[in-house]
Amino acid sequence: MANHKATKKDTRQANKRRERNRYHGKTTRNAMRDLATLTSEDEAKDKLKKVEAMLDKLAKRNIIHKNKAANLKSAMAKKINALATAVEAPVKVRKAPTKKTNSNKAAAKKSAALKVEAAEGTTPENE
């Protein structure tokens, strides 16, 4: 336990700061979680601006590193943009695989045979 008056005060201040930082960090994480669950593009874009501002404040106060804030903002923007394009883009339909014909199989066999012959021709034994 601290014995000096100034040390006791410093401990009290550190506790206050820690609680404040925990509150802002948790609030921001909850806002990010809520943003990830949104499906409406307009709502998500509005919420994204608010969450980005919260992250910038955390970085400014040195609660998180500025690069971490930038990475989180980038990832969230990427998700929101994917949500926007998913709504606009038509669904792609995969084509059924085509059946191989005998001529394709014969060509494949001939190609394989030529490769084997070429490989055999370059061995040191034949030289």
In short:
The chain has 127 residues and is an all-alpha fold. The chain has helices at 5-37, 41-60, 66-88, 102-121.
Task: Describe the protein.
This protein is mainly alpha-helical. The chain has one domain (1-92): Ribosomal protein S20 (Methane Monooxygenase Hydroxylase, Chain G, domain 1, Up-down Bundle). It is 76% helix and 0% strand. It has helices at residues 5-37, 41-60, 66-88, 102-121. The protein starts with a helix and ends in a 6-residue tail after the last helix. 6% of the residues are buried.
Properties at a glance:
127 residues; mainly alpha; Methane Monooxygenase Hydroxylase, Chain G, domain 1; 0% strand
Give the secondary structure arrangement, pairings included:
Layout: H1 5-37, H2 41-60, H3 66-88, H4 102-121
Helix pairs in contact: 1-2, 2-3
Structural class label: mainly alpha
CATH class group: Mainly Alpha
CATH topology grouping: Methane Monooxygenase Hydroxylase, Chain G, domain 1
What count of structural domains? Answer: 1
Order of helices and strands: HHHH
Poorly predicted spans: none
* Main sheet overview: none
**Silhouette:** elongated
In helices, the fraction of residues equals: over 70%
Q: Architecture, CATH level 2?
A: Up-down Bundle
Mean pLDDT: 84
Strand content: under 5%
**Distance N terminus to C terminus?**
87 Å
Helices, by number, come to 4
Count of extended strands: 0
